[in-house]
Amino acid sequence: MATISVTARQAKKKSLLWDYLTTVDHKKIAHLYFWTGLVYFLIGGLEALLIRTQLATSLNTFLDGRTYNEILSMHGTTMIFFVAMPLLFALMNAVVPLQIGARDLAFPFVNALSYWLYFFGALLTHISFLTGDVPQGGWTGYFPLAHPDFSGYGMSYYAIGLQLSGLGTLLTGINFVATIINLRAPGMTYMRMPLFVWTTLIASILIMFAFPPLTSGSISFGFSDTRRCTSSFSRRSASSRK
């Protein structure tokens, strides 16, 4: 009897895990966004603690210059792209369909795909800690500071990670715009929509305009430069054009 009970609990845990790994339900995806964002919030908080420890006293040698630049770059990237965005999407996924009377988002599978793109983008960026090539060009990724001549090849992880998570963010924005425009309950006009739904709609439209050039333009050129396939931001290319 005890063996059957243990087996049943194990099967229930396995089915729950598999359910969350394969779900397209907006409420469960909201849980995934929330808990993943919380994990990266703790990681970003640890990075902030290391930064503040280094800055606690003058001439502190707790972190050397390279390590400090790496921690500073990863802290900004983590808090903006891997904490703030997913926590916002968690709230949107949980609330918006309920407020407009929709059963789910317009494209449930795309919603799940967006989360996993974000998840693997964030994971790839932090894998750089294991390889030793951590981004150190600042969380904004500005060139020429982010060029390999100054920051090594760690910015490649930054570029690919943000391309993946940026694509997930773009798909999420499109999904919410389609949901709010097409799946409102009968009688819910634009002027009757809750304020949070309006906020989500405007934010999603801004995402649709902002992320394509960010992802396909600057980050792509930046990745090509970090791999020395192009020289868009290289000092050598600038001097050669003079």
Strands, helices and their partners?
Blueprint: H1 2-22, H2 26-54, H3 65-100, H4 108-131, H5 148-151, H6 155-182, H7 195-226, H8 235-240
What structural keywords apply?
Cytochrome C Oxidase, Chain A; single chain; mainly alpha; disordered C terminus; globular; 8 helices; 242 residues
Total helices: the number is 8
* Series of H and E elements: HHHHHHHH
Low-confidence stretches: 238-242
Q: Count every beta strand, where a strand is a DSSP E run of 2 or more residues.
A: 0
Q: Write the CATH homologous superfamily.
A: Cytochrome c oxidase-like, subunit I domain
User: What is the helix fraction of residues, given as a range?
Assistant: over 70%
What is the highest CATH level, the class? Mainly Alpha
Q: State the distance separating the first and last CA atoms.
A: 83 Å
The average pLDDT value, as a whole number, equals 86
- Choose one word for the global shape: globular
Q: Count up the domains.
A: 1
Main β-sheet description: none
Q: What is the radius of gyration?
A: 21 Å
SS strand fraction: under 5%
CATH structural architecture: Up-down Bundle
Structural class by sheet pairing and helices = mainly alpha
CATH fold-level name: Cytochrome C Oxidase, Chain A
Notes on the structure:
The chain has a single domain, classed as Cytochrome c oxidase-like, subunit I domain (Cytochrome C Oxidase, Chain A). It is globular, with a radius of gyration of 21 Å. With 242 residues, the protein is an all-alpha fold. Residues 238-242 have low confidence and may be disordered. It has helices at 2-22, 26-54, 65-100, 108-131, 148-151, 155-182, 195-226, 235-240.
